[in-house]
Design a protein that fits this description.
Length: about 425
């Protein structure tokens, strides 16, 4: 601070008063208004009153000081060459911007930051546009910007570069190997890292850009695995698996001997993603109809009751392995008959299957009559809102009935019907 101005630091109350003046000026955008003196001590009020050429009692009684009053008094002192704003900046040692000026400056800095992204990666405009829009899903990104804009820029551009080097369609790569190949650091996209979260966000926004309306950013392990899998990235190639019986698989050498032996011995296989990615084709050993259930106990019963029929089990929500298996089967021209649980999550799964494979999917024992036969006592009132996302025409009748009854229905109640359907179809 200039020696000339040290009097304000040495005299009690002035620096405290100037901080109040500063905030009032920033708030109003001009030198106006008043500040309260309630928190000031008697000695502080006396010092300020002396500067204003007022009695301490009168100032204490008023309990406030106006900025215009102080600036007017300033002109009758040895500091008349200062405006009040200049005095505040000189004593606080920093330029003082109004809140509107500061907001405008921040906006200009944000625009400059975004423009750098557009210039660096024009192909990422779909992502930069979303970040610029400042929706709910990007608030955390702007928090990172405020913490360290330079670090965020580096992470965003690294993610965009990696996006341009995703595995080719039908190819899969483990996440650490993908990170090593694209960034030189195998842990760059690890769970919990800034880059890992940004990569997921870019994939999430790309899905929306393509018209797939994901309900939210992936949070659970299954949601993260699935989103990465859509882009050929495997976070864990053993965790994701499905069970199947009655299928033949081929690799570059022809029919896979393990799958062939399983068909000959009517054996159920638990196939992880690690093995699926080595294959080139999967087809039923018999016919072109594939039966799909999500419940493992129901699946086990059907396998015992109906030998040879090509049946697979997803074990609940579709994981990456399920999608890869189904992709192979659809490519082989198969018809998929799917039966799931009658709860909001089960219907959403059925709809997703229909979205992906269209006319090659048929819903199996998933009508209103089947729902009534499978009713349980589980209340789903708290989850019923999930049915708002249901639009598949074939499921509207059961959706309406589920809204009315507000209870779940489970496949266990339909096991006998499912077995009979397969036997009838296969003439067993």
């Amino acid at each position: 601070m200039n020696d000339r101005l040290r009097v304000f630091r040495d005299e009690p109350g002035f620096m405290k008063l100037f901080l109040l003046f500063k905030e009032k000026y920033r708030s109003l955008g001009k030198m106006g208004g008043t500040v309260s003196l309630r928190s000031f001590t008697d000695s502080e009020i006396e010092a300020i009153a002396g500067f204003l050429a007022q009695s301490a009692d009168m100032l204490r009684q008023k309990g406030k000081v106006s900025l215009s009053e102080f600036e007017k008094a300033l002109q009758h002192t040895s500091f008349s060459d200062f405006s009040l704003l200049q005095l505040l900046e000189a004593t606080t040692g920093e330029p003082i911007l109004t809140k509107s000026e500061q907001e405008r400056l921040l906006q200009e800095e944000e625009e400059a930051f975004l423009q750098r992204l557009y210039d660096a990666y024009p192909s990422g405009a779909w992502w930069w546009d979303r970040i610029r829009a400042k929706g709910v899903d990007v608030r955390w990104i702007w928090s990172l910007y405020r913490e360290d804009a330079a670090a965020l820029f580096d992470h965003l551009t690294a993610c965009c570069e990696a996006f341009t080097k995703l595995p080719d369609a039908g190819k899969y790569e483990k996440l650490p190997l993908f990170a090593q190949r694209t960034t030189g650091n195998p842990h760059f996209f690890d769970s919990g890292t800034t880059a890992g979260k940004l990569l997921l966000h870019s994939l999430y926004i790309d899905q929306q850009h393509k018209g797939t309306q994901l309900a939210r950013m992936p949070r659970t392990a299954e949601e993260i695995h699935e989103l990465l899998g859509l882009y050929g990235i495997m976070k864990d190639d053993l965790w994701s698996f499905l069970s199947c019986r009655g299928f033949l698989a081929e690799n570059e050498h022809g029919i896979h001997p393990v799958w062939e032996a399983a068909v000959k011995t009517n054996t159920v296989l638990n196939i992880p993603m690690k093995e699926l990615v080595k294959l080139e084709r999967i087809r039923p050993a018999r016919g072109s109809t594939v039966w799909i259930v999500e419940n493992s106990s129901v699946y086990s019963t059907i396998v015992d009751e109906v030998p040879d029929a090509p049946i697979l089990c997803t074990h609940g929500q579709f994981r990456m392995a399920s999608w890869v298996m189904l992709d192979f089967l659809v490519q082989s021209g198969c018809s998929l008959y799917y039966s799931g649980d009658f709860d909001p999550e089960g219907l959403v799964m059925a709809q997703r299957l229909k979205e992906r494979y269209g006319e090659q999917v048929a819903f199996w024992q998933m009508d209103a009559k089947s729902y009534e036969a499978a009713l349980s006592e589980e209340d789903i009132s708290g989850r019923i809102s999930k049915l708002e996302a249901m639009y598949a025409a074939e499921l509207q009748e059961v959706v309406s009935l589920m809204r009315e009854k507000k209870v779940a229905g489970y496949q266990e109640g339909l096991t006998a019907r499912l077995c009979e359907d397969i036997k009838r179809s296969c003439r067993i």
